Structure formats: C-alpha cells, structure tokens
Amino acid sequence: MARPAEVAFSFDGATLRAPVGESLAAALIAAGLRRLGEGPGSPRAAFCMMGTCQQCLVRVDGRLAQACLVPVRAGMAVTPA
Amino acid sequence: MAFDVAVIGAGVMGCSTALHLARGSMRVALLDRGAICREASGVNAGTLTMQMTRAALIPYALRAHEMWLRMPEWCDGGSVLAVACPGLSVAFTEAEAALLETRAQARRAAGAPIELISGGRAMEIEPGLSDRVLLAGHCPIDGFTSAYLTGRAFRPALLNAGVALFENRAVWGIDREAGRFVLETESGPLQAKRIVLAGGVWLEEMAAWLGVTLTIKVLINQLVVTERIAPAMRTVMGVASGLLSLKQYANGTVLIGGGWQGIGDRQRGGLAVRAENFSGNVRLAAYTIPALREARVVRAWLGLEAETADALPAIGPIPGVADAWIIGSVHSGYTSGPYFGKLLAQAVLGEAPEMPLFPIDRLLAMEHA
Amino acid sequence: MSAPFDLAVLGAGPAGMAAATEAARRGARVVLLEESPAPGGQVYRAAPPGFLVPPDPDRRAGDALRAALATSGTTLLLGHRVWGLGGGPLVPQGAPPLPFRVDALPPDGAPLTLEARALILCAGTHERIIPFPGWTLPGVIGLAAATILLKAQGVLPGRRVVVAGAGPLLYAVAAKLLKAGAEVAAIADLATQGEWARALPTLTARPDLLARGLAWRAALATKGVPVLAAHRVVAAEGADAVERVRLQALSGGTSESFDCDALCVGHGLVPATEATRVFRAAHRYARESGGWVPVLDADRRTSVPLLYVAGDGGGVRGAAAAPAAGRLAALAALRDLGLLDGRAHARARRRPALEHWRAAQGGAAMARMMALRPALVDAIAPETVVCRCEGVTRAEIEAALDDGATEMNQLKQFTRCGMGPCQGRVCGEAAAELVARRVGGRERAGFATGRLPLRPVPMEAVLGDFDYADIPVPAPAPL
After folding, report:
1. Which residues of chain B are within 8 Å of residue A56 when distances are taken between CB atoms?
2. Cβ pair C182, C165 in contact under 8 A
3. CATH (one of 3.40.50.12780, 3.10.20.440, 1.10.10.60, 3.30.230.30) for A6-80
4. pLDDT digits (tens, 9 = 90+) for C181-223
5. What is the CATH number of domain C5-126+270-367?
6. A59, A64, A69, A79: best mutation site toward chain B, by most B Cβ within 10 Å?
7. Closest Cα in chain B, distance from residue C457 (Å)
8. ipTM
C-alpha cells in the first residue's frame, strides 16, 4: 500500500509521525499507543474505529474529538481527554 | 376481597402515599399502567431547591428535603443518592435582580433561609460561576437526587410494608358497587374501599372517571445531560426566573434542566426536544457555568409535569365522592413529593395531617365559574 | 435556512449512495450527509486521500457507486456528523407534519440545519460484541474495526493476532492480516463446519463472494493457521494490554491459550435504529436480521410517512443488497412526493426489486451466521463489565433485575447501563438479552427510547456565539 508523506504530530507531549490523512486512532495504534485513558472500571482504547463506541476520545488542539474520526494533520497536538 | 385502599399511579406521590398507608395498617394496592416511577418521578432533574419552589410550598419542601436526605432510614435502605449542598439563584440583568429580590423575600417569609449576596460572594461559594452575575440568592439548604433511582429506592420498602404493587396494569375506569370502588383494569377488576388518584398529568382523565371535571395543564419539560467532565461546580444553580437548574453529580455528569418546553402531550408522552429551546437551555447553562463549554451533550429527554389552574397542588378529598382522594400537580412536585404523600396518608388514615392539605374545591369552583 | 430539499439521505454507504444517485438523476433536489470524509460506508470504505490501496472487488464496487454519485447532482456533505433530527411526525398534537429537520456538525465551522420533505435513513450497523473477561483490555478491537484498520489505513492491529467470533468477517480479517504481514495465532469460529455447509447453497448465487471466501480459507490453510470451529473466547488476559487469549469449545472442555498482542473479535452486526426510534416508527425484533429493525414495506417505507430505511439498518442483508434497497427507497420517496407517477414507479422499481431479492438471499444466510448466540450471554461472568461507559457489571444488572426492572429503559434507570456516551450501542445487545431471560423474550425487554443527540455533540457546536440577550428565556415560573 502506498501512503502519503509522513508528518509530525504530538501525543501527550511525545512527537509521533504518521501519514497525513490517516485516522488518528490508526496512527496511535501504529505507534504502539493503545491505552488512551481511563474509563469507569476499565481502560479506554480504540475499539470500534467507526465513531460508535466513544472509547478513543481525545483532545485535538484542546477540543474533544474521537480519534477514529480525525485525520492526522501536521503539527496537531493530541492530549488525553 | 377488597383492598382498604387502591392508589392509582406509582410515581413519587403515589409511592409515598401507599407506603405510609401500608405502615398505617391498611391493605394497599398500588397500580400503574407502566413501571414504578417511570414517568415524571424517574426522569425529572432531581432538584431539591427552595429557590425553585413556590413560596406557599416552602414549609412542605423543607420537610421533604429532610426526607430525601434521610430516605434510607425511612425507606428500608432505599436511596436516591441525595446530596445536600448550597443553592444559588443568579441574576444577570437589572430586571432579573429585581425579580430575584422580590422572590427571595417571599420565600424567606415562607421559611426558606435565602440571603441575597453579590456576584463576587457567589463566586466564593461556587468557583465555577460566571463573573457576570449581578446578584445571587444563596440558600444553604438545597441539594439534589439521582431521580432515575426513585423507583428502585421505593420498591423494596413498598413490598416490605405489604403493598400489593401492580406494575404494567392500566386502569380504564372506576365503578361504585355496594359502597366499594371497582377498578376496571387491563387484567380484570380490582376492589377497594377507598381510592387515591395519583396520576400526575393524567389526573384529568382519572377525575373524569368519577364525573369530576378538573383541568390539568401539561408541561413538557426538557432535560439535558453531559458526559462525565472534571469537577466544574459544587452547588445547585438556578436563575432568578426559575428557568434553569444545574448540578454536577459525583460521576462528573452535569444535568441541565429548568422547564424549557419540548413537544409532546398526555397521549403521546414526551415526543421531541424543540431545537430553539434545546439551544436556549444549554446556552443559559453555559453562560452560568462557563466550564460547560468544554463538555459534550450525551442525551436530551422530556418529562411531563402537571399544573392546576392556579399552579398550586391538588391534594385532598374529592368533593362529592366519599372515600376518594387525589394527590398531584405540585409545582416542583418531586422536591416535596414524599412529604405530601405522608400528609395525604395521614388524612386517609383519619388522622389530622401535620400540615394543611390543598383541597381541590377551589379548582372545581373555578371550573364552574 | 434555505428551502427544503426534496430528499435527505443520511449515510453514504452503498444504500445511501445508490438512493441519492437514483433520486437526483430523476431530477429531485437531494442532499446526502456522511460522517466519514469520503463516501463508501464500512464495506466499500474509501482509503484516505493519498493512500493507494490495491483494488479489490469491494473497492471496485464502491468506486462505481462513488462515480455515479459524483455526477448525479446530489449535494454531498461529507464529514458531517448528524446529531439532531426533528420535524416529520414530531409536532404538537393536531399540527400537520413538518418537513424533516436534520442538524449536522460539519468538520469545521458553524453547525448546519437543513430541511427535507422526505428522509431516507442508511445508518448501517454497529458490531455486536458480547462481553467476556478482558474484553476491555487495550489490544482487543472489533472485527469491523480491524477491517477498517487493514483496508483503509494499512495498519496492523498487532503482530500476532487471535481472530474470533462469527460470520464471514472472521476469514476476511484473518486473510488480510496474513497478507499485511501479521501472524494469525488462531481463529475461533462460533459456527460449526455444518453451519457453514448449510449456508453455502445460498451463496452459489454469488460465485464471486463464494470464490473469495474459499481463497481466504486456502490462504489460512497454507500458513497452517489453526481454525477452531464452534469455539469461543473464554478470556483475554494481560497486564496493561492483551497478552494471551483463552479459547474453548462451545461444548465445554479445557481451554487452550494463545499468546498474542491483539484480539479481533465480533459476534455479528446489529442494525442501527437510533433514528427510527427517535421518529417513533414501528419496530419488530428479528433475531436473524440482527435485532430490532424498523417495520418496512417492500419499498422500504417505515410506518412514518415519507421516512424510509435502506441498507443493513433495516435488517442485515449485506452490502451487495444495499444499492438495490437504496434505489427502491428513492423511487418510493419520489412516488410519495408526487415526483413520479404510479406507472413510472411500477416500471422503475422492477429491476431493483429483483436485484434486491437475489442479493438478499446470500445476505440473509450470512446474517443468520452472525445472529446473536445466547450461549455467549449465558457465559458472561458476574464480575465482567457489560456497560463500558458506566462500568456496569453483569452482577449489577442481575441485581437490578432482582429489584424489579422489567424492561430496557428501567434497567437503564436502575443501573446507568446504556446512559454513557456510546448511548447503549456497545452494551445494548448483552444487556437486553439479560433482561429478556427474566421477562420472557426480547420483545418484552423492549429497547431504550430514541433520544437526541444521535451522537454526543460538543456543547460548543450547540452554543455558537451568543450574547445573553440572544437567549430566549421564557416567562418566569410562578412564584
């Protein structure tokens, strides 16, 4: 599979690289970052990848967003929700 | 075999009435066309605030406030997770400030310990508050419950007290035979020596079974809840007009209410939020507690509230029909509900109620006028 | 707000793309709203811009639908999350129906509200995952999720993966994992060999799908991947993420442990009926179609005038059947709007009706393979979390049932199960089965009343910019 050029973005302060346009949830999985936060009784991690389960909620540049619905952009600052 | 009393409608008023009647040694049937506390009593905002209570009801609401907080003690451990906290009612404009002063005075005269404070002082009590408040009413005796737990909280105590609970058993009409009431229900007749109508917005139809014309207005109140967010507030918030209630639960969710109107009716129930009232309600909430801007709305729903012609309760005997009683249509009825049920039970048991009831003769006279 | 569209279509999967195309080509003013950045839906999902994915049959079918849509004259609103619905029958008593109202959240910018005289819902499905110990560990993802990762992004969910659950997605995911360079530790299929054998005859009408399925199986056999028929996941285990999965035959016996760093699991697909619930359309429970489905006529009309459902949201029949259903719905909408006369409608619907009938045979067989299996629900351990958003365990659900909860809305009140941000989509199936066991079936257990927003909506999107004077505060409550 051919991918577009990689760009840099940050998650919780750490710099990551992923092809521009890839879903943020996929980029985090590819980077080995699977635990995205804590829910009541269990950790949160990307689960459905289609916007349903709400487990991949993060903040992108300060705003709440579901990582599986957000494309990677250069310079985006991602933090846990 | 006839029950001593049949209570029709298993909301908070019907449950409390039935419980206190059963503890007064009556054989009680409690019927509902649906499940226990599944209408207004289970879907309201759970606000226990004096500043949204009608002045005439303050003495009742103060007693009910204590009942809610001590519910596990008198309800066999049943709990609605009642929380006591200060309440604030705020004014953003001069007109609202004037309204607030009038209303606080009337409620204070009725016994609610409300003091008027500056916006700055209000922010000390509620650090999450907007800095645009001109004046605030502060009541140290306020609080809230998780109203969705009300049915679960009452149910075991009702059964322990010997109440025959008939959920999902609609009543279609009432006949009188040989001095007894015969309830026509979807699964056969049920006999009782006395009846208590406790049907919320459906009291109009119930009264009509007895040939009594009682107009009940239906309010379709909208409610909105956010997902869990970091602590944003620690009081029960309202506004001078009464058109906002706001609280954050221990789990982080914030409940936004205030009686903004949605679409629905008695027949179809709460049908849909009205888009402009949805945005108006949440704007007022976010204007009051700015941190709500960061939240996401998870759900909006509707609850039906009943109101009489003079917006005061209908609690007492039904004139012209011996052994028939009515309870309901209390503005902010959830707040005062358990106490009103206790009072009516006292009257039905032949005792003198410890506080006056709200007989409906006045309302029937208005119908005839 | 501009003048109402003739037709709004929600969801640009195969059903929605075909519905919009059909209606727009016949001259209707059509708007199509889609949450993803590109049309396609889950099966025909497009890769993000710049991702060059080798073509496969799904991609080719999707591209054909996309090409037709692009030239149809449809107003296409991509990246728009629909959160609010109104109008139609949702009016005060005695008032005439209104045009349907759709509130959407565009990728950036101000919230959008539009109106349409008719509405076709093409919401598709979400995946059913019946809980088991460890299902909430990082590294456990849905089968559909794995498909999206692999097909659209080319990202591996793990290096060594266990694939478990039901239906054709199992083998599709396993084959794609191998092709992408991952190791498949094991496949645990809920179905027996016999169930597959019985489903095969219905697939002979679709030799292309049959051939693809056989190719997947062959690839797995070549690599020596253990395929365990009639097996389920007993538990996923690990400290911070899944490290191993224990599998066991449905008939019992000892469990077998497989080391892995990911588990892809799915127990079938559930029609998404949130929107038809909001409009109070009639529904029926149809286990073999995936669960509760709206009651539909042959032309995809719901019980609500001018409201239609096409695709798997009306009952699982697969992507191949969806375009024909979309066209049937569009034609019915045009007919009901008076934009197509009776004779033209009768003529135009013949071909899609036949196509739909044909494709739905195989789709129904696959749907049966993916229908809910009660044994999985029986096996949920008391301490296992069922509702992940609210942390509600099976034991807590059973306690609420002991306390007298008799249907889904009451269970929600007694436990908070389904009250969280996923709005019951993930836990709903397991919770409803637990209620059904006590009250005598899913019909009696009912379903949670449809509520807005359809998805959690950021407060900012609802608020917009406003001054205090812009808030239409009603008259004060009585003193």
Report:
1. none
2. no
3. 3.10.20.440
4. 999 999 999 999 999 888 877 777 677 778 888 888 888 999 9
5. 3.50.50.60
6. A64
7. 5
8. 0.96
